[in-house]
Design brief:
Length: about 290
């Protein structure tokens, strides 16, 4: 019998690659979304329409089935977890967390740098806390109140790729090519990233693993925005325009950091080297910006 899998948020960005990986594994996949974004999976998946923030919607929509694995890409606070797990109990629960869960970013971030068992959980909504604090509360409530459910919290750095709807990485290349001034306060900081396709594959891999707890997911290695822009300049003959009054860089305020993925490697998943794919993405971004 194929594994029954529910994906909350599986119609865009790395969620699409997760769903495709699950389909390729032969899983019986159901996507639950608000129904506002179309997908290209045809009859390969089942679909449910629900409102993640509405407990009655969850109760009505999700409690008819038992799932082997639930992937939750849209849990932002402990309240999101609470109103879901009151009504559905998966055999395994894999939540997309974030490097933002770490109280302080630095080089060689390890999972043990933030222990969600150490801080008392509290129920909060996204209106009450910022993104980072919200992700911490997600991990805390799962570790403490719902410890009976085998759960994984995947801490990704910035996820980037050709279909990144946030356009944060795109911002820097687009501004250089269109010669728009930008204000960047961390040009030389080394930073970690993960490719959207690889993020989806890693999530799918975790569905086949028995691992529980926090785990980092990132490409190996780092790069600075300065290196990215130097590459684009060499390709285009253009130079970036920096100005304190320019458009604020989306990654402003992010310190130098790197993500340790030894734990992921230990359980059997090998991440790519950042340098092996980042420049191909830059080439794609250059082409996109040049054609606009």
């Amino acid at each position: 019998m194929s594994k029954k899998v529910l994906v909350l948020g599986g119609t865009r960005f790395f969620g699409k690659y997760l769903v495709q990986s699950l389909v390729d594994q032969g899983c019986d996949v159901t996507i639950a979304t608000r129904g506002k974004t179309t997908d290209n999976f045809g009859d390969q998946v089942n679909r449910l329409i629900f409102d993640r923030t509405d407990e009655q919607s969850i109760k009505t929509t999700l409690t008819q089935e038992t799932y082997d694995v639930i992937y939750d890409n849209i849990a932002y606070t402990s309240n999101d977890i609470e109103i879901l797990l009151r009504h559905v109990t998966p055999k395994r629960y894999i939540v997309t967390s974030s490097m933002s869960a770490y109280h302080e970013l630095h080089l060689d971030l390890k999972e043990t740098d933030f222990d969600p068992a150490e801080e008392p959980f509290r129920l909060v909504s996204s209106e009450e806390v910022n993104y980072a604090e919200g992700k911490r509360t997600v991990e805390e409530i799962l570790t403490q109140k719902y410890s009976q459910i085998p759960s994984v919290f995947v801490r990704f750095p910035y996820v980037i790729g050709a279909d990144d709807y946030t356009k944060r990485f795109t911002f820097y290349i687009d501004h250089l090519i269109k010669q728009k001034p930008m204000a960047v306060d961390n040009l030389t900081h080394q930073m970690g990233f993960v490719d959207a396709k690889e993020a989806g594959k890693f999530l799918a891999f975790l569905g086949t693993s028995s691992f529980t707890g926090p785990i980092n997911g990132a490409s190996k290695g780092t790069i600075s925005l300065e290196e990215v822009l130097q590459y684009v300049s060499k390709k285009t003959g253009l130079s970036p325009l920096f100005s304190e009054t320019g458009d604020q860089g989306p990654y402003n305020g992010t310190p130098a950091y790197s993500i340790n993925v030894a734990l992921a490697e230990e359980i059997g998943f090998s991440f790519s080297q950042l340098q092996d794919w980042i420049y191909q993405l830059c080439d794609w971004e250059i082409a996109q910006a040049s054609n606009e």
